[in-house]
Amino acid sequence: MSLAAKKKAAASKTATPKTGTPTPGSKASSKPSSKTGSAASTPRRGGASTPISVAQQDLQGLHLTEQVDEAELQREREKYRERPVPSMKQEELIAKVKADEEASGKKNISLVVVGHVDAGKSTLMGRLLYDLGELSEKDKVANERGSSRVGKSSFAFAWGLDALGDERARGVTIDIATTHFQTPHRNVTLLDAPGHRDFIPAMISGAAQADVALMVVDASPGEFEAGFDRGGQTREHAWLVRSLGVKEIIIGINKMDMVDWSQDRYDDIVDALKPFLTSAGFASAKTVFLPLAAMEGINVAEHNVPTAGSWYKGPALVDALDKVAVPERPYSAPLRIPLSNVFKGQTAVASGVAVQGRLASGVVQVGDNVRAVPGDVVASIRTIEVDEDTAPYAVAGQNVTLYLAGVDPNQLSIGTVLCPLNYPAPLVSKFVAQILVFDLQSPIIVGTSVELFHHSINVPATISKLLAISEKGQVIKKNPRVLQKGVTATVEITLRPATGSSRQAVMPLETAAENKEMGRVLIRRGGETIAAGMVTELL
Ligand SMILES: Nc1nc2c(ncn2[C@@H]2O[C@H](COP(=O)(O)OP(=O)(O)OP(=O)(O)O)[C@@H](O)[C@H]2O)c(=O)[nH]1
């Protein structure tokens, strides 16, 4: 699939509200980037993506508009419910997955790109894709033309990566776009994160899915400092990605052309970042620094530093990515697929309801039946797409598009978790978490209202009890009255019903001990990330 087409697909899911945060279900959009056989042969209709009922969808799929033959409709519905049979038992599948990985010599990793606004993230990724042959000359020329028309000709490479329309006019990335590329030993899924403060919720969704972060900083005079100061996004992004479980980080010190490849400037930036990254929880062995000039493609796909930069002997970006450690994937744990997208509206029922997400744990194959929670809906996996290609199975760590049979799209939403039939994730309205408190404007007290982020959703919640403050694993204070910046605390968190609803709010959640990825939460207040933590007990 061409990059332009991929971008179009990515752009089709950019429904993040420009101010405020996305709410569950708000990203549902028209249609995923499908090219499965069944989808291709399925009649599709244009039009608005307002949610429609299953019956209406059936009508669309069958091209019946007014005269409805109920019996015929029923037969068609039954047909949709015909399920492919899984070809392997779970244990067989896990063994095959491991053997396939061994044989391919390539491992899958997901990369999130973060950094202060305008640091050059999109330019860098555009350049990398171009140098790796993923962005054609034609795409690049079209991008150059398009971007100079709106008076931003230096954005030519970024153009390739940023989505369409609104985003182009403003020159700011507003939602996660995914693309794939390969290094000699890695298949990389790239999640391009927006740098703008308002868009951090979208970044959280990307970072929650990543194995490694590429943090881009701008070496130009004054710019690194602006991004690193309080209020700049460098610090918050580093905290966020680490809190979301990303252990490896590559720091691309970009725009070295602006400082004539000065080693002093590079060293100063490294010296400022190192202690900060350690305090944010990145082990120095898992931190790589490299100088770059993204626009000119220097030190991106090859170690081609100019004479002024001959002091640099380390890896080019592509070599650093090729060495990213692949975490042990929890294949044998029960399946958990938190959905990051549900395509409501135009998707015809015959090809299944299209959803996207990342396997937090477990394995799944075509024909498997899964239970969707909340809602307790049973669906059958009709088709699996990994990297836009159909696949017989998918495993923990992969981002997938799934086509589900036997389910109404309105029963699913962003945040729904697909689970095995006999092992659904528990639904929780209150839990205990151990949290690390970030930089705060005002302290956390009992009753503090927050937004709770878990994978791709955020829900209103209250810090209902402050249970303890600990240091190095020891409780140093019980029932504190306030939590200040920098402390590790045990708190009770209670979900609040959505505005206007009297129903008790619940969400699928597990303790971190049970399932690391399902037990990680982020806490924000008033557009600021104030804490991150692990669920330790479900109440
Ligand atoms: N001199 C110089 N300018 C660069 C380089 N890389 C990027 N730029 C410029 O920096 C500006 C911002 O680049 P983008 O790639 O849009 O930055 P971004 O980090 O993706 O920005 P957001 O999407 O808004 O977060 C553009 O004008 C680029 O042309 C570089 O290596 N050298």
Automatic annotation (TrEMBL):
Database matches in PROSITE patterns: G_TR_1, G_TR_2
Polar residues bias spans: 50-59
Comp. bias regions, Basic and acidic residues: 72-87
Main location: cytoplasm
The organism's place on the tree of life at top rank: Eukaryota
Region (Disordered): 1-87
Pfam family, one: GTP_EFTU_D2
Keywords from the named record: Cytoplasm, GTP-binding, Hydrolase, Nucleotide-binding, Protein biosynthesis
Cellular component annotations (GO), alphabetically ordered: cytosol; Dom34-Hbs1 complex
Catalytically driven reaction(s): GTP + H2O = GDP + phosphate + H(+)
Keyword Protein biosynthesis: yes
Biased composition (Low complexity): 11-43
Subcellular location: Cytoplasm
Segments of skewed composition (Basic residues): 1-10
CDD domains: EF1_alpha (cd01883), HBS1-like_II (cd16267), HBS1_C_III (cd04093)
BP GO annotations: cytoplasmic translational termination
Domain Tr-type G per the UniProt entry, residue ranges: 106-331
GO molecular function: GTP binding; GTPase activity
Family annotation (InterPro entries): EFTu-like_2 (IPR004161), G_TR_CS (IPR031157), GTP-eEF1A_C (IPR054696), P-loop_NTPase (IPR027417), T_Tr_GTP-bd_dom (IPR000795), TRAFAC_GTPase_members (IPR050100), Transl_B-barrel_sf (IPR009000), Transl_elong_EF1A/Init_IF2_C (IPR009001)
Entry's family note: Belongs to the TRAFAC class translation factor GTPase superfamily. Classic translation factor GTPase family. EF-Tu/EF-1A subfamily.
Record-linked PANTHER family: TRANSLATION FACTOR
Subunit structure: Component of the Dom34-Hbs1 complex, also named Pelota-HBS1L complex, composed of dom34 and hbs1.
Listed name of the protein: Elongation factor 1 alpha-like protein
Native species: Vanrija pseudolonga
Gene that produces this protein: HBS1L
